[in-house]
Amino acid sequence: MKKYTRKELIELLEIVDRQISYPVQLIIIGGSAAVLKYRVENATKDIDYIDDSPSFRHAIEEANLSTKLSVPFEKVTVHDGPYHFTDRIVSADVSNLKNLKIFYPEIHDLILMKSIRGNENDFDMIREICKKNRIDVSVLKERIDNEMDHVIGNPERLKLQYEICLEIAEEFS
């Protein structure tokens, strides 16, 4: 499966922006948020997003046709972010966009969201996020303790994944 660089993702977002004539707010999560906002160089295979526009899908299809990139956009309806992650979203620094208003999870929230699935790629991405950005381990601990009890999964496995996440963050703090 092809992976897309920051440059390719921005190009596609700019084309999507030109396809729409109304404001659309996107919260980009997952690996694409790490690549676009937090300087992760490990490319991503898709753009996972949460949006407020039911007709946004058409703009994505038009943009993919005009670029031949065919980046898979995946609308996420269920996500395991900390309880209040939408209160902490941060805005994008993609200045050429008129109608797309792009936001990302705050860095600690994104790290916790990536830790849920807990595969090797997720932990590699967490490692790169921690290496290239300032992380406050106490914030991660506080959110694990107070904002992640809704996550469905094997409690022992989740506990282990959070511990690995904290170890990675401590390594670079």
- Give a quick account of the main beta sheet: strands, pairing sense, barrel closure: 5 strands, mixed
Structural class: alpha/beta
Alpha plus pi helix count: 7
What's the helix-strand series? Answer: HEHEHEEEHHHH
What form results from the Cα inertia axes? globular
State which percent range the strand residues make up. Answer: 5-15%
Which blocks of ≥5 consecutive residues have pLDDT under 50? none
C-alpha Rg, in Å? 16 Å
Number of domains: 2
CATH architecture of the largest domain: 2-Layer Sandwich
End-to-end Cα distance: 33 Å
CATH topology of the largest domain: Beta Polymerase, domain 2
> What is the percent of helical residues?
40-55%
Mean pLDDT: 89
Which class of the largest domain in CATH terms? Answer: Alpha Beta
Q: What is the spatial order of strands in the main beta sheet? A: 3-2-1-5-4
Q: Count of DSSP E strands?
A: 5
